[in-house]
Amino acid sequence: MRRGWFLPIAASLGFAFLYAPIVSLVIFSFNESKLVTVWSGFSTKWYGELFSDPQLLGAAWLSLQIAAISASIALVLGTLAAVALVRFRRFKGRTLFSGMVSAPLVMPDVITGLALLLLFVAMESTLGWPQGRGMLTIVIAHATFCTAYVCVVVQSRLSDFDRSLEEAAMDLGASPLRTFFDITLPIIAPALVSGWLLGFTLSLDDLVIASFVSGPGSSTLPMVIFSKVKLGVSPDVNALATIIIAIVALGVLIATILQLRARPKKARG
Amino acid sequence: MTTAHEPTIPPPRRLRPWNAVERRLAKVGISGRVLVLVAPVLWLLVFFLVPLAVVFGISLATKQFGRPPYSALLSTEEGTVQLTLHLSNYIKLFTDNLYVAAYLSSIRIAAIATVITLLIGYPMAYAIARAPDRWRNILLMLVVLPFFTSFLLRVYALTGFMRGNGVINQFLGLFGIEPLVMMQTDFAVYVGIVYTYLPFMILPLYTTLVKLDTALFEASADLGARPARTFLSITLPLSLPGIVAGSMLVFIPAIGEFVIPSLLGGPGTLMIGRVLWDEFFTNTNWPRAAAVAMAMLVVVVVPIMLLQRAQSAVVEK
Amino acid sequence: MAKKPPLAIDTRPWRDPKAKPFVRIRNVTKKFGDVSAVHDVSLDIYKSELFCLLGGSGSGKSTLLRMLAGFETPTSGTIEIDGQDMTQVAPYNRPVNMMFQSYALFPHMNVEQNIAYGLKRDGLPRAEIAARVAELLALVKLQDYGARKPHQLSGGQRQRVALARALAKRPKLLLLDEPLGALDKKLREETQFELVKIQETLGVTFIVVTHDQEEAMSLATRIGVMNQGEIAMIGEPTDIYEFPNSKFVANFIGSANMVEGVVTEDEPDHVRIRSAELGCDIHVGHGVDCAPDQLLWWAIRPEKLHLSRDKPAGIHGANVTHGMVEDIGYLGDMSVYQVLLDSGMRLRVTQTNTVRGNPDAITWDEQVYVTWGDTSGSVLTV
């Protein structure tokens, strides 16, 4: 066994590398000066500025809506796909299907974005739908790649699901559909929640795909941030980042605590 | 008691709504399977597979002014349908040095960054896997946490760290060291990729390492192997699927990366994702962008297949 | 083949050719792809029986049980329960309930909800459900545990909840898949008798799948031994043990010494078999359906053999052979001797340790005679 000094030191340095930039970002969000890197006193004025910027607030609201809708669509599609992949051992086109489900996980964003945009343009000129590009097209694009993530999460939960639980329900008189709602759904619920949250976060985070498929007047939060950052460091972005990091950290913390509490329940009955 | 439990004929079954719905669907020839498959299959066909076909089709068109800004593949002229395919975009890809150089430098940058990520991620994953149980979950959470915070903002955080008067240079200044130029260099791009993709490397590595039976190491030591020997001949080979999976999870998206080179890299940092972006947004040459995308797909297909094999190996163990 | 001694006519329905079976399995075959898990099985099970399907893994016993529950549909053949053809009926429409090997207790429901689940599916009034749940909790002695979740129960308690849940709908037929498999040895013995008691009280027909022969022997009214998808033998526990019908059953149940022999005398009242392996003749004190010079097998249980230092008389100059004690396994209640015969064959002989610390017991390397009664062994032709 290697119980030397190397591993702890390497791990500590690694974590320092992961967190130092974030910590400095948070600290400088409370900086008085507009020069982001020179400390000149504590202030929360950048937060105030943030909440009086209508462009930023509008983009944030749009992003939240898109994230919620696309995560919900992805939840349904991804769960169905996971059920099919885990439960239906053999069906026509299974390999193609599983490839289609998992490919968006690793597909470079620029390709996905370009491909969907070209599709939307081609569909508009031949079918007349979707008219123009905006929230709808972004939702479709995000739901597509979020489906892959939801599917992976639900799949892993389903594959260690004890099938005899469902058989027991049917044996006691429940029809297959009834069994799904009474037994399967409640048991895979934690995976559904984490799948949805994952989809929500990824959608909220996406810059590249949204840039391709959005239209005029439908700039998402990452798009606004990107254009600000392109122009140079601005302290209100620091403030925004701090808020997002705080929300995410809180969310992950709560999820972890819930999971730790729920652990004994995982013992299969 | 005995009489109460005498096997009796069960009460007549009332028609319950679920059963009725199922029966009706079954009558029209719709089984549960079809119902489950139809939505995801249709969605992915229309919004994943067809778009790739469209990209391929448009890559065979040429740039045109108007809406849409590319030539039509099919045209009807005097009652005959004509199919016009242009290979010019692909020929350009191979003959124009810009594209060839961009592909090669993307692969180089992604590969070097992947190796660095592996070198940093492996000890971390190993340390977490060998940590006491109560620490393990907290450390894992610390790895995952940055992954959930915005990717864009993390890249942005790095710019604040590495710029001319950034945190690092101010720190170095305390020791009287001249400020280093880090931003807008390839170095910054490496740091950016390593920084943002580190969790993708650590998680699959951790998954394989944590499953290794500690008895294996004890057996190896018992048979006379020193720790370094044990690592090389036991730990490393057994964690190979994790190494491949983690490396591919970093390498594949890094090849097509756009945000990192455009925020951290300099004008000389050539990456194919950026070339595609510029071709599309700046030059509005959609067919050329489509051809660049097709060529990029070819580049990532082999790594994707490697990844799938490694992933099934990670899961199986 | 060994002939059974004549039996008194009693209440056991399987001995009455006119009795109507409750479960009727006719020529059932189940194939998964090209492999038949169950091959042409026919089996009658009578009301209030506790029938055990006994077999190793892959013997098809679980597949047969799952076909009775409705989770698998036979490839061919029919299954009738209480006179009704159930072959194609969905599991949720069968008057049959099952207790699962993993218990399959719903982890998100408490004990009461688990037990009530099937009753709710039948649309019973709430008051009746509550009464029935209380009655079942009392039956399995878990009155105070109704509000607990499955993960808060011990293994034995979970097993009882699973039983109560399966009994809740008052099924005509209860299927039990390795009902005691997940319990430790001590608890398993206690639970065995409890299970039999409940079965007798309720009069429900039980079909139990198990790989544990001791469990099958002590639980069952009859046992069906399964081997490679087929029924090797059906019979009462004593039949299966004392009168196995084949080499497979003789070897599978308990342990047996098996030798090859040739028939030298074939009379209506006795048979003589010459066995080179054993180094002596075997005199069998009853008629056997065989022909002179036929090659067959003779099996005898270790406890039916006797050891002695002096040469015993034997029967008609047969049933005595000689060897040396090669090894002794002391098990407390008895000792297992391994005797190396002069012919080179090894016999397994058990002797009950009736005397405490017996100084006169036969020990290692002693020369011994092995002998047996003329009806102690089984003559097997397959």
Keyword list:
heterotrimer; A: 269 residues; MetI-like fold; 11 helices; disordered C terminus; B: 317 residues; mainly alpha; 2 domains; two-stranded antiparallel sheet; 2 strands; 72% helix
Q: Any chance you could write out the topology, listing elements then pairs?
A:
The complex is a heterotrimer of chains A (269), B (317) and C (382).
Chain A: H1 6-28, H2 45-50, H3 54-87, H4 94-106, H5 109-127, H6 135-159, H7 163-171, H8 176-205, H9 208-213, H10 221-231, H11 235-262
Chain B: H1 17-27, H2 32-59, E1 74-77, E2 80-83, H3 88-95, H4 97-130, H5 133-148, H6 151-162, H7 167-174, H8 186-211, H9 214-222, H10 227-238, H11 240-255, H12 259-264, H13 272-282, H14 286-316
Chain C: E1 23-32, E2 35-45, E3 50-55, H1 61-69, E4 76-81, E5 84-85, E6 96-99, H2 111-121, H3 126-139, H4 155-167, E7 173-177, H5 185-202, E8 205-210, H6 213-219, E9 222-227, E10 230-235, H7 237-242, H8 247-252, E11 257-266, E12 271-275, E13 280-284, E14 295-300, E15 306-308, E16 320-330, E17 334-341, E18 346-352, E19 367-371, E20 378-380
Parallel strand pairs in C: 3-8, 3-9, 6-7, 7-8
Antiparallel strand pairs in C: 1-2, 1-4, 4-5, 9-10, 11-12, 11-14, 12-13, 14-20, 15-19, 16-17, 16-19, 17-18
Helix pairs in contact in C: 2-3, 2-4, 3-4
What does this structure look like?
The complex is a heterotrimer of chains A (269), B (317) and C (382). Chain A has eleven helices and no strands. In chain A, helix 3 (54-87) runs antiparallel to helix 8 (176-205), helix 3 packs across helix 10 and helix 6 crosses helix 8 (176-205). Chain A has helices spanning 6-28, 45-50, 54-87, 94-106, 109-127, 135-159, 163-171, 176-205, 208-213, 221-231, 235-262. Chain A is an all-alpha fold and 269 residues long. Chain A has a domain at 64-218: Orthogonal Bundle (MetI-like fold), CATH 1.10.3720.10. With 317 residues, chain B is mostly helical. A two-stranded antiparallel sheet of chain B has the order 1-2. In chain B, helix 2 crosses helix 14 (286-316), helix 4 (97-130) runs antiparallel to helix 11 and helix 8 (186-211) runs antiparallel to helix 11. The model of chain B is unreliable at 1-15 (pLDDT under 50). Chain C contains eight helices and 20 strands. Chain C has helices at residues 61-69, 111-121, 126-139, 155-167, 185-202, 213-219, 237-242, 247-252; strands at residues 23-32, 35-45, 50-55, 76-81, 84-85, 96-99, 173-177, 205-210, 222-227, 230-235, 257-266, 271-275, 280-284, 295-300, 306-308, 320-330, 334-341, 346-352, 367-371, 378-380. Chain C is elongated, with a radius of gyration of 25 Å. The chains are: A mainly alpha (269), B mainly alpha (317), C alpha+beta (382). Chains A and B meet through helix 1, helix 3, helix 4, helix 5 and helix 6 of A and helix 1, helix 2, helix 4, helix 5 and helix 6 of B.
